[in-house]
Every structure is written in structure tokens, then in C-alpha cells.
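As described in the Methods, two query proteins were run sequentially through the folding procedure within a single session, without resetting any intermediate state between them. The first query and its resulting C-alpha cells are shown here.
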Amino acid sequence: MQKSTTTRKSLLSTFQIAAAAIFAALVAIVTAATTIPIPGVSGGGIFNLGEAIIYAAALLLGPFVGLIAGAGAAIADITVAPAYIPITLVIKAIEGLLVGYLVKSLNRKIKSLSLCATIAILVGGLEMVGGYFIYETFMWGFSVALVNAPVNIIQMLAGLIIAVPVIHAVLRVFPQFKNYL
């Protein structure tokens, strides 16, 4: 019996690593494909829908997959916003980690998955908004950061509006993902 438990844990880790890589690639593709530049901003700020994929990955498969999926946004920045690559790697990885960790923690105390997911996304999203605000203030000044902050808030809210119904749909089709919550 001991051997099957070890094998199961190894397979679970293998699945999570594979899922993390797939979600990182999906985040990069969706980010690059849905990029809308913010006009008149010298720092190269953008709006995109990659946030929704980061949130869905973290909500469905936990903090590790959320972290790696979030890091996938830096891949898109190679062509979309090169000046943001290092900070995107850090900010989006932490965002995915936070969302995945918080939804798991909250789900033990709160019965509503939608409420847990919303709280987790708001906290993770605010980390993203604050992280970019600080970075942009140092790189391009307070006025650029101030212009980009509302766009980042809208991006977070768009991700929330997309990700929460998506995870419910996925859980209806693949109820085994509930094991990760």
C-alpha cells in the first residue's frame, strides 16, 4: 500500500508540472493575442486577458500551477512589452501563487467557491496592481503609474468576471479537479 501512495504522489506532481507548463504557455498566448496598448503612455503599459488564465489555473490547480502560469505572462512580454519582462515574471508569479493559496485556504472556511475565488482574485489582483504601480513609478514616474493603475484594475476585474464562471464550468465537466481545492 505504501508504494501506491508514493506512486500517486509522483503522478500528481507530474500532472501539476505538466499542467503548469501548459497554463504558462496558454497565458503567454492569450496575453500576446489580446494585448491592447494604452495610448500615450511612455512606459508601454497594456491591457490583456491573460489574467483570466492565471486566475483559472490557480483556482483549479492551486498555488504551484498558479505561480508557473503567472510567470508565463513574462514570455508574452518578450514581444509585447520588453521593459516589463523581469517585473512581470515576479508580479504575475506572486499573483498566481497568492490566488491559488488563498482559494485553498478560504475554501476550508467558506462554503461558497465563488466567494472564495472572488476574495482570492481581489487580493492577488491588488498585488498585481500595486506591484506595477510601484515599478512604473520608479521607471517612468508617478503620472504614468497613475494612468496605468485603472487599466490594471479593469484587467483584474475582467479576469475575475471570466475566470469564476470558467472554473465552475470546468468543475462540472471535470469534478476530479475539486480534489485540488
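Immediately afterward, the second query was submitted; its sequence and C-alpha cells are:
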Amino acid sequence: MGIEEKCEILRGISECVPENGLGEEEEKENLLQNFLPLRSYSKLADQKVFLIIGGRGAGKTELFRIMTSCGGFTHIINEKDRKRYTGLKESEFLIGYVANGSGAKVFPASSVCTDWLKIEKPEELASFWGGLVCSVILRRFESDQEVRELASAYLGDDVSKILIENSNELFRWWKKLEFRKEMWESFLDRVDDILHQRGECVFITYDELDRICSNYGDLFVFIRGLLDFWYRHNSRFTNLKAKIFLRNDLYNAKALQFVDASKMGSYQMELSWNAISLYRLLVKRMANAEIDSLVVYLKKVPGLLQVAAKDKLGYLPGDSEDALKLLMEKMIGKYMGKTPKRGASYTWVPNHIQDANGEMVPRAFLRCFAFAAEEMLNHKDEILNLEAERVLSPTRLQGALEKVSFTRVKELTWEEYQWLQNLINRIHGKTMLMKQEEFLEYLQPCNWPEEERDKLPGKTSTEILEALLALGIVMKTTDGRINVPEIYLHGFGLKRKGGIKRTK
């Protein structure tokens, strides 16, 4: 294989992680090509399941967007599961809450929600979430005479108009609904009856709930209210249902204190990835990179790709783990060195991107290969030294892990966990492992500026440590010391004896 062909293959690998900066419509064009339907997604077709939890980067938002903009279950559920669950073709997914993009403008801004909670101090949020459901239904069925008549009878024309045109102006409609709970409840009951008669099912779908308000503590008030609302209504309604996407650290946080959490097992599913599913995703991204030589390269591995492309999803990977192992041996070599001492190439990346809870996410996995491919393209002399059809050197893959760690931590501190940056500045340069007593000193809330303390995931250092443990950012050893997994170690600027050798 010539160097030009290898460079083409490396270019395809380097582009297997979509850039975050793509425009909303441009992303939609590639959404299905990048999407891998997992077998575990069949549980989504169960109308009883309304809560989908997963870690950051586990694919919640991608799945949310597939459901709400690409035909619902069409590309998620296979033919066998469609026969198991009736009525899937008549399902429709409406956005019940989202914080970003054009769809966010119909929902109250985070600052509005924070102020509203402080000023109104509601005892419970049934009318808040019920009002937003009403507004979603009213906009979707605005031209439906039967629903319009129901809205006029139960909500009144003035309230209906506000919920359609000004649903983001929370202070304008909340009290009107709070004083007439039985009316909006009855409206939703009657809408559910209509949907049942028509044989239609509408799913109200929620994502980005971690951004519904600007105060971390208040976040749990809103989430608890939403879970309670749908815990009561999902079984009451027959054709008006919900799908709520939520970070698992928020669901498992002690601050949530959801009263019926112990009964939620049959109503939820967890998004999780193993090595096989991650490698299948990598293969799918590579195969659909629109590079002919890359498709030929993949097809040389028996059983790696399915025989035919499936509609808009493009090429789909096969199920054989042996084929995936052969691909890694072909791309990198069987081992991460000349001998088994440095580990098998197939298991190396999954082992090193795990967080403290043993969880792996697609973005970090794909970036390991993408960053390694970029470095190979920047050092083409190294490509010449690779034998046969190999395109990646173990050294570049090991070096990519450090960059993945920095990227992962940067995303955390830039988006959901901005409070982490202050901690990173204090522990930068420290060596792991660390005694728990010493680590707790760095977590004292007084170390943060007073104006930032409301955003901390706890009021004591112990509570903040519990949040870090739940997030999988740190772990406790058997002797009680604190350790940080490799996926976060470099990004935090920490050292550890015996870690991977950094690429110069």
C-alpha cells in the first residue's frame, strides 16, 4: 500500500469526530451517517420507559436529535422490535425542553427560571412542567379544530394564546395555571383521549436539563419536579408519553432526593458503551467518510461491514468481534509494542479512556484515533516506516490519549462544570495518589470566590468529593487514598508515577 493511499485512510480516520462548531442544519445532514443504532435502544420503544440516563458524551443529545428531527424510531428500532411494539409508525416526538438552538426560544431562559424560583417560591412544580406540556401540544395542534376547542373550553382563549406565543415568558402564565390546576390537567386528559381514538402517540422529549437554571442547587428542584410529573402522568396517559434524557450524575446525586426513585427501575434505561459497540461506531464513521480507498481497506477484513448499506444510515458494521480485532491488528499491529508487554492494541484504548466508574464514552474513544491520525499526517516520515497496511503507530495512539484528556477536561470546565477550573488551578502539578485528608482541603468551599459557591455541587468538601466520585473524575483506593483515571489525569495537570510516557 502506497503512502498516498495511507494518507487518504488517515484523513478519513481524523475526521471521524464531527466538529462541535458545525451549524445546526449542517450537523443534521450528517447525523444519520454518524449514528450507530445499538441493540439496547430497543427498550426506547417501551412506552413505560420515560427516563434515559447516561454520562456526558454517552450519546444522549445525539439520540434526542435523531428522535426529534429524523423520524423518531425509524432509524433506531429494528424490524423485529417494530413487530414487538405496536403503533410505532404513528409515534411523534415533540421537544418538551431544550436549552440550545432555535428550539430553545419557546422555553424560559435559565436566568428567568432562577429568578422565578426565588420570587414565586412554588411548593411544587407541577404547573410549571404541565404548562410547558400544554404549550408544546397547543403549538403542534394549533390548526386542529378538536384540540383548539378543548383548549378554549379548559384553558380559555387568553391563556391558550399566551402559551402558544409567549411560553418563554414564565411570569405571564404560571399563576394562571397554578390557580386552575384541574383545568390544565383535564385538558391534557382530553388530548390524551383524542390521541388514543386516532391511534397516535406523542412523546414529549427533554434534553439539556442541566441548563434549565443558573444555580446548581435549584437544578434539582426542576429535575425533581419533572420526574415527579411524569412518574404520575406517564401511567395515567395512554398516548401522551415522555422521554427524558438526563445525566446520570444528576440522577444519582443525593441532592435530587426523588421520593419515588426506588420505584423507577422499570421506567428507565441507561446508555452505556462497551468495547465492541465503540469499535463498531469507529468502523461506521470510517466507512461513511466518503473515501473510496477507506471503504476498500475496511472490506478487506471479512465480516467487518454488512453486505448492503441500510437506507440513510449508510454502511453499517457487522457484529463480529474477531473482525474488529483483525482491523486493529491491521491498522496498528497486534500489540502496542513488539511484545505483549505493552498490551494488546484492541484493548488498549478502551482500557485507558475509562473513567473512575469504568464507563467509556464514544467521543473520547473516537478522538484517540482521530488525534493519532492527525499526528501521523503531520509526520509523514513515520508512515513510511510502517509495514504492510498499518496506518497508525502505537506511539502516536499513546500520545493522543494525553490530548484527549486535555480536550475532555476543557469541555467539562467550559460547559457543565465550570466550577472545576478553580480546583484544577489549585491541584495542578500535584502527584497522585493523594491522601483523602489532603484532597478534601482543596475542596473546601471557602477556596472558591463567594459568587461562585452557589454553583458548587455541595456545601461541604465531603459533598463535593461525593459529586466527583459520582462523576467518575476521582476514585478511592482500597487504602482510602484519592486517585484520578488517565482520561482526566493529564487535563488536570496531575502527575502519577508509572503513567504513560508523554510524546515529545
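The chain has 23 helices and nine strands. We note this only descriptively and draw no conclusion about the first query from it.
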